[in-house]
Amino acid sequence: MIDHITLNVGNLEKSKLFYLSALAPLGLSAVQYLQNWTAIGKDNQPVLWIQQSTTTRPHLSLAFKAESQRQVDEFHTAAISAGGISHGKPENRQQESHSNRLSYSAFVLDPDGHIIEVFKPLE
């Protein structure tokens, strides 16, 4: 089981604004600040650490599970408003990465080009 993920970012302040805005619809917020790091999570438990770095490659793909289609929509809107670039508008998709199940998902590129997905499995 994964406890948390650390993501290297080129501009901590810009990425902090992006991630805090984009992930707020999922109930995630900053849970700890350090000099060159920010921890984002829920109930004081970090799930994503972003750290200032001169290396942001290789690009990563991160997926967050939503509780509703509305959260997927709100993520996409918030992420774009915070400077992200749409990499797939919210819609139903058949996804191999999710055991070939149908999900309602949206994709955004963060300020460093990492792919951020939020999805709601469709039963």
TrEMBL record:
This is VOC family protein. The lineage of its organism: Bacteria, Pseudomonadati, Pseudomonadota, Gammaproteobacteria, Oceanospirillales. PROSITE patterns: VOC. It comes from Zooshikella ganghwensis. Pfam families: Glyoxalase. Residues 1-121 form the VOC domain. It comes from the Bacteria.
